[in-house]
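Hello K.,

You asked for the raw outputs rather than the summary table, so here they are, unedited. I folded two proteins back to back in the same session to keep the settings identical. This is the first:
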Amino acid sequence: MEIILKTNIEKLGAKDEIVNVKPGYARNYLIPRGYAIIATDSARKMHAENIKQRAHKEARILADAQVIADKLSALNVKIATKASDTGKIFGSINTIQLSEALAKEGFSIDRKSISMVEEHIKMLGAYDAKVKLHKRHT
């Protein structure tokens, strides 16, 4: 029996895949729990259209993420903080402060999407950070 998976199922397949399973497994487990639907002709057409629309939407989101990434790559952010004469920062700079500094520059980026080479910056200097804008783009 062919079914269309609505969620990822370990050792069976990923979401939106059409897979072959035994009829009892489909009727008694997958379909009642909402994990799958029967792959009828109308369900296949709807499935194909959903994938087509999702691909178009993903391409647009990826293009927007690329534009933001290009702007961010040219950006240098300065964060003001107290430091000693030797250059040691009182406290540290973390992703929260970096996210706030980016917000002042006009980029609304969640702190959880930002990763720095050093977890907490404790000395004055220039540092690099990576921002995850899209699941396929860093």
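The second followed immediately with the same parameters:
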Amino acid sequence: MKKLPSLVLALAGAGLVAALAGPAAAQGLRPSQQLRTNPAPAPANGPRAADYIVVVVNSEPITNNEVRVRMLRYEQQLAQQGSPLPPRPQLAREVLERLITEKAQLQLARENGVKADDAMVDLAEQNVARSNNVEVAELRRRLVADGLNVSQFRDDLRNQILLQRLRERELASAGKVTELDIDNFLREQEQAVGSAANTEINLAHILVAVPEGAPAGQVAQLQAKAQQVLARARAGEDFGKLARENSDAPGAAANGGQVGLRTADRLPPLFVEVTKDLKEGQVSDVVRSAAGFHIVKVLEKRQSSRVGISVTQSHARHILLRATPQMTEAQAIQKLTDFKRRVAAGQADFAQLAKDNSQDASAKNGGDVGWASPGMFVPEFEDVLNALAPGQISEPVISRFGVHLIQLLERRQSTLGQREQREVARNLLREKKLDEAYLTWSQEVRGRAYVDYREPPQ
């Protein structure tokens, strides 16, 4: 689970290679890049001004305005990056499919009683404001000035919290890693030193999708299109621009088809196979998979070794309060906020407050959780911890365990021993399993939904 600022600002996020390798990874925009979300007015000879239903997911509609608002968020992100805009029909298709998936998941969240109370939304809003270095009142003023309804903005935050909580619950057991899994993983890494499995690769990817059951004539046309795109790429045209204009892969409109730096074992085997003999800057031939025709470019290759790996470790302490019938989550947040104020004013000692109040095993040590390598804490905790300076105390942080108040004590560089390397392996394997489980689950939720397409978005 990601920290709230990244989570709630993933409204215009894009996947890496979701159709092939894993779930759409939320690419959180900076909050300031998302404050302007009112749709641009339609040209006089363009789409009609009145809103209308584009698609119905089960019994709930998605309107043209919803699609336009989300498209505008994509366009603003690209403008911030200085990237050219993709063709609007392609962007509209990608945005609509993402909205359909989100709608189906939100419906499932409600059916399963998943909730996000006002206190959680308040905290998310505070995090967004803090990320923009403004107070909440100023954030709201800017939202209104940019044409966004504050209530709708808070609804968006609530929906993203609901989605995250649903995914946590549905995939709670999916990331289980056994000691045998770790043994096999480390053995493979030892055998793979110098091999492709131990190589980190940054790829870019173009997919020309082939619909299931497409007739031979249509397949031939799509293959010809892929060959034309390949010829343009090898002639020196910008690959990111070609991906934005031609790729049907989720996220291509926003990220130019980039997959990002990953070890070979976290990439689709097809991608690894077609790029194993390529050098940086080279482009593969057109290759076929069940999804369609692919073109892959190698952006970077480098060897990695997990032997004696050096990492940045954090030494922290925290206070954990769990929601109970006697104390709601909102009350826990308020209590921890008061603790922070008292410590900052010199009226209380963090360690003593942890001993007296924290509801986990670290309480007896004044909340001290010791030295931790990356990946040892749940992501929402770790993301906030990583943003702290030594001595700094966070705002209350919500995780699956409860509400935390975190203080970073110090940081250091450390070379991992055998035990620590096993923990790194465990975290890598857990992430991979969760990626795979999320993709399967997301496709199942989307597949169970009744989707009635009405009119194309404009």
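The longest helix spans residues 418-448.

Happy to rerun anything if the numbers look odd on your end.

Regards,
P.
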